[in-house]
Structure formats: C-alpha cells, structure tokens
Amino acid sequence: MQKIRVDVAVIGGGTAGLGAYRAAKAHTSSVVMIEGGPYGTTCARVGCMPSKLLIAAAESVHHIQKAPGFGIHPQGELIINGREVMDRVKRERDRFVGFVLEGVDEIPAEDKIAGYAKFKDDHTLIVDDHTEITADRIVIATGSRPAYPGIWNELGDRLVVNDDVFNWDDLPEAVAVFGPGVIGLELGQSLHRLGVKVKVFGLGGQVGPITDPEIMSYATKAFQEEFYLDPDVKVESMKRIEGSDKVEIQFINHNGELETFVVDYVLAATGRRPNVDNLNLESTNLEVDARGVPSADHFTLQTSVSHIFIAGDASNQIPLLHEAADQARIAGDNAGRFPELRAGLRRSPISAVFSDPQIAMVGETFKQLSARLGNCGCFATGEVSFENQGRSRVMLRNKGLLHVYAEQGTGRFLGAEMMGPNAEHLAHLLAWAHQNQMTISQMLDMPFYHPVIEEGVRTALRDVNAKLHLGPDMIKHCLDCGPGC
C-alpha cells in the first residue's frame, strides 16, 4: 500500500471539495483531494442546472397554453417531443459539467487521488486498498445523496431519484412523485406540464421548505389547482406489477376513496442524507449529532477535533450550492492556515424553489422567529397578495402571497417567506436588505419603479411598518406612484 503524508487532505471532489482544495492551496502546496466517483458537482450533473433545463422546457409549454388568456390562440396541435426535450436537457447538462471538469483538469494529477476514503484515526485516511494518507488537517466535503425508505428498493429499476431523471431518453407516460419538497415540486410540476401524468404525494402535510402556515396553505391550494398533490397521503399499497415495467399504487384520494394509479416510475424525492456514514467516523474522536454528522462551528467549520473541518452538504447545515461554496472557502482556508483560524462570512440565508409560482425564503423563517420571539409578541408580519398586484395581473401571473417579518421597537427587517411571480428576484432584494441589517423604514426609502412586481414588496413593507407603529396606516388603492401598485 502506498503511504503519503500531506498538510491537508480534502475528502470529496464536488462543489465543496473543489472550493476547499483551492482555498487550502493558497497556504500550502501539500494538498490532496480524494474522490471516489466521477468529478463534476451535484449542481451541474443532477441538481440545479439540469432541473432548470427541464423547468425551462415546461415553462415554454405553459406559456403557449396561457396565450388564449391574452386573446392569442395558437393554431394546430401542441406536440411535446419527449426525446427532443430530454436530448436538450442532457446536452446542456453535459456542457455545464464540462465547465467543471475543465477546472478539475487544471489540478495537478499528483493532487488527485481516486477512491473512497475512510478514517483510520484522527490523522489517517485509507483510500480503498491502495493508499494510506497521513494528514495534518482534513476537510470532509463528501456531499449528500437521496434518501428514501429501504423497502422501496423492491420496485427495482422502476424506483428513480432525481439523478436518474436526467438520464432518461424520453418522457414516461406516468410518474408518482413522493416528497413535495424542493426537488419533488420542481420535477413534479415540470413533468406534469410536459404531458406526463403526475401525482405528488407527501407525508405530514409539508409543502416545499415553507414554515409560515398561511404561505403553506396558499401554496398547497395553488399547486392543487394545477396538478394532483396530497401532502399527507395514505398509501394502502405500492408494488411492481408482475411481468411488467409498471408500478401499481393504491391510495386514499381527496374524496376518501380508494384509487389506483399505475405508473412507469416512482420518483423518490423524500430528502437527502449527508455522505458521512461510510467514513468510519467511529475510529475518530469526532462528536456527531443525532444523524451521525460531525458537529461544526458555524463560522469556522471546525469540528470537535480541532484539525478536522467539514463543508458543503456533508455538514447538514444549508444544502445549497452557494452555501457549499462559502463553506468550502472557510473550511479550506482554515485548514490551510491552521492553527490560526478566521471566522468566515456567513451570508444571510436565501433559498428558492423554481416552481410556478416560485417559492422563496430569506433571513429568519417564521418558525425560527416564532421560537425566538413569538412568546413576547416581538415581531410583526406584513402581507401582500399578488392576485391584484398591477404588474402581476398585466402578465397573467397574479398568484402569490408574501409575508415580511420585522422586529418591534427597532423596526429591523428579520426575514420573509413568499410564493409569487419572480420570487427568486424579490428574494435577492430582501436578502441584501437583511444582510445590511436594514430597517423597514430604510427599505421603504429605496426607489421603486412603476409598474413592477417589486411594488408588491413595498406594499408588504408598508403593511408591517404600520403594525410596528412606525409609519402611517395602510391606504387602500394608494395612488402615489400609479394605479395597480
């Protein structure tokens, strides 16, 4: 077995691993990156980029179907060529992966070790059966993988995860999506709009990442108006039909009746789990949480073992690409400069679901605020509905509800949850305000053009400002910048 000694070993070659490697390299040339699978990030291969390609195809269909609402009537049969849809998804996906691989190719071959690493002790890693690495510092950046009940494996190749969807050559006839979270909503709605028979099932009533009950209720109703969604379904049975490539699902429908749904695939979108269970962590002195994930400082990403750091989805903090990149820079930098540590910049939380209408969350969630401030009535909620908001109605995209949260006394903006048109863009404006610790009054002093969807944000800000007793009461149909604002 080959034995090597390095200053820093990074386990994983995805977004977090690549970022940590580069950050550590700024301090020492003695860095290796260990990767057991193909290079190319989750985002590029099976996550945010291919899913947006499928969503873009679905949106093009939806625009055509909405055209009669404007008095425009497309002629002829609308044909959705599943093979052409999936061909573009895969071609563009491969292009995005190629950009990542170009960066990987620039890394010296001696810094890349192929294989799966396991801990032998706090300083030693065994890579497959061929290399033993002694490292002064280690960064765990092993990412995550889809998680679902083990019994579903009985469905064989009829059970798929989002990774599998983007390798389809054609669109199937029918799919059951389990898990109305981010992945389930995005893929489920897209497949529905592309002509696939879809039912989306969940347990416990949760829809997306939303924590505000009113936004959750609105979102559930909005989705149910378009496709079948039961966020708390009772499944009586689910089995592979003998001698066929179909799965039969029997469930209790919204009418309380037993219904049978036969599908080509069951898409498991029931969450992801950090890839730390195969690292042999029990051979280390790492302290782990209830899920077996090493605990780490939020600002330094240092674990309970001072020279071991963790970053990205493996940390189980916020599994988003921009968070993985930030964590990678912090963990890699601290591993490189150890024992000197620096607290890294942790930006204001921002997340989005690219459904239609989109869902977005910024800053502290309603659930977090209720736990921290709810008992003392120390925060207020401002609201706006996009159903009558001027620009939204102009574009026939007038579905949605926005809640903004602010602190009593200081008037500081604390966070927001929303479902609505262009929520991805509204969320960025609000995230910038949150990171700059702006007050509601300061936000209202910012410019708002007319007519734009952003005027809805101003309406919500005015609503909460009045509830904070820091501004005038709301005026219905205010005309200070034009009708419909």
TrEMBL record:
InterPro entries the record matches: FAD/NAD-bd_sf, FAD/NAD-binding_dom, FAD/NAD-linked_Rdtase_dimer_sf, Pyr_nuc-diS_OxRdtase, Pyr_nucl-diS_OxRdtase_dimer
Domain Pyridine nucleotide-disulphide oxidoreductase dimerisation: 351-460
Gene3D superfamilies: 3.30.390.30, FAD/NAD(P)-binding domain
Residues annotated as domain FAD/NAD(P)-binding: 7-328
Lineage: Bacteria, Pseudomonadati, Pseudomonadota, Gammaproteobacteria, Vibrionales
Keyword Transferase: no
Top EC class, one word: oxidoreductase
Top-rank taxon, per record: Bacteria
Protein name: Dihydrolipoyl dehydrogenase
Entry EC number(s): 1.8.1.4
Alphabetic keyword roster: FAD, Flavoprotein, Oxidoreductase
Database matches in PANTHER family: MERCURIC REDUCTASE, PYRIDINE NUCLEOTIDE-DISULFIDE OXIDOREDUCTASE RCLA-RELATED
